[in-house]
Specification:
The chain is of the alpha/beta class. It has 7 helices and 11 strands.
């Protein structure tokens, strides 16, 4: 297998006013640093489903943001499909994301002024795809929303909004899908249905999945689990059954 994501010596620190003795701060003269991530290093293989787990504040979402080039590290590097993310300027990173990444967030991130069809069409139109209506309609039908194309987000349930978000992510056929707590705003039954849909679409498309979650049952659905604690990788393992 080929590594589609390569992470080397990745750290993220934020300067703060000096307050000696506070946890997670490293004193530098009269200033201090909050260490969010330190010395993160791993690869993700093409087609792999990887879960990143850890307690609240362990750095999961920060790591995902760095992997996507949405934030800049203090040290280290990220390569996506062999391209060094942080050798690019902001516009270059945005262009790389549009080519290879799809995103699903806890808060759905739908545009309220656009209906379901328009939300899914948007990335296709930005990419200059002339079949945006056809492709977006087909993807919404695949996620069970063929009868809700003209509905605006405020008229959709939370589960329906996340289905639109999944359709928007998969319609671009991304090489890598990054999902940050995709069921965090959903009840248990709706969340379970969304996860079934996510893994079904992922299997059908062969996308590489990187999933941030605090849910151990959800992590067990992935082929490998990376555990964060205090901003460091504390374990890498295959999930246990159960």
């Amino acid at each position: 297998m080929t590594a589609i994501i390569e992470i080397r010596n990745l750290s993220k620190k934020v300067p703060l006013p000096g307050q000696p003795g506070q946890r997670f701060r490293h004193e530098v003269g009269s200033a201090a640093e909050l260490i969010i991530l330190k010395d993160i290093e791993f690869d993700v293989q093409a087609g792999e489903a990887l879960a990143i787990v850890g307690a609240s504040g362990s750095g999961k979402s920060t790591l995902l943001g760095l992997m996507a080039g949405l934030d800049v590290p203090s040290t280290g590097s990220v390569c996506l499909k062999g391209e060094s993310v942080f050798s690019l300027d902001e516009d270059g990173r945005a262009a790389l994301r549009s080519r290879v990444l799809g995103f699903v967030f806890q808060s759905f991130q739908l545009l309220p002024a656009l209906n379901a069809l328009e939300n899914v069409m948007l990335p296709l139109e930005l990419a200059g795809n002339g079949n945006a209506i056809e492709l977006a309609t087909g993807m919404l039908q695949r996620v069970g929303l063929g009868e809700r194309l003209q509905h605006y987000p405020k008229y959709l349930s939370g589960g329906e909004q996340q289905r639109v978000a999944l359709a928007r992510a998969f319609v671009m056929q991304p090489a890598i899908l990054m999902a940050d707590e995709p069921t965090g705003n959903l009840d248990a039954a709706t969340g379970a249905a969304i996860i079934e849909l996510l893994f079904r679409l992922n299997a059908e498309t062969g996308t590489t999945l990187v999933l941030v979650t605090h849910d151990e049952a959800l992590a067990r659905r992935c082929g490998r689990v990376i555990r964060l604690g205090g901003g460091r990788v504390v374990a890498q393992d295959a999930p246990t059954a159960g």
